[in-house]
Amino acid sequence: MTAVLGIVMLMAGMWAASTVVQPTSAAWTDKTHTSATVTAGTWSSAKNTCTAVDAAGKPMPCAVTGLRYDEWGTPGNRVRNYYITTSAVGARHLDFSVDLSTASGAGGSFAWTNAGVATGAQFTPTNGWTCAKLPLVTGKTPEWFTNPFFTVYENKTGQSVMCG
C-alpha cells in the first residue's frame, strides 16, 4: 500500500511540475555573422583536364600539358588555331575539357560572344557543349588523336562552324 501511495504522489508531483513550469524565450535576438575556411574534402579548380583510354579500353593517365594558339586577322574577325598537348601518348582516344582563355599565344583579347569552332575540328562535342559555352570546350577526340587541333573564328557569321 505504501508503494502505491508513493507512485500516486510521484505522479501528482510530476503533473503539478509540468503545469507550473513554462518554456521561456528571449525578448530579443542578436544578429550574428560567421565565416569559415574550407579545410576538408576536395575542391577542384582545374581548368584543363583530360581522361584517356588505351587500346584495350582501359583508363590510362592523362594530363593537358600544353594549350596554345596561333592568331591572325583583325579585331572582331580574328581566327585562331588551337593546339592541345596531352601526356596520353598511345591513347586510343581521350575526353577533354579546356578553357581556351588560358591558352598561350601572341594575340590580344578575343571576343567570344559570336565565336565558333570551325568544322573539321579534331573532336566531337560532349556534355551538351555548344559554341555558346566558349571559351570552354569539352569534347572527345577521334581514335588515336591525343593532341587535338581546331580552328576558332572570332566571328562565326558566314563561316562553316560545327555549332551553329
Structural features, described:
It is a single chain. The protein is an alpha+beta fold. It has a domain at 49-153. 12% of the residues lie in helices and 27% in strands. The protein has one helix and nine strands; from the N terminus they run αβββββββββ. The strands form two sheets. Strands 2-1-5-8-7 form a five-stranded antiparallel β-sheet, with no helix packed on it. Strands 3-4-9-6 form a four-stranded antiparallel β-sheet, with no helix packed on it. The protein starts with a helix and ends in an 11-residue tail after the last strand. Residues 32-44 have low confidence and may be disordered.
Query: Could you give the distance between the termini?
Result: 93 Å
Please count the helical segments: 1
Q: What is the 3D form?
A: globular
Q: Write out the strand line-up for the largest beta sheet, numbering strands in chain order.
A: 2-1-5-8-7
Quick check: average pLDDT?
82
Supply the helix-strand structural class.
alpha+beta
Number of strands: 9
Helix content: 10-25%
Task: Give me the strand/helix succession.
Answer: HEEEEEEEEE
Report the uncertain regions. Answer: 32-44
Rg over CA atoms, rounded to whole Å, is: 32 Å
What kind of sheet is the major sheet? 5 strands, antiparallel
Strand content: 25-35%
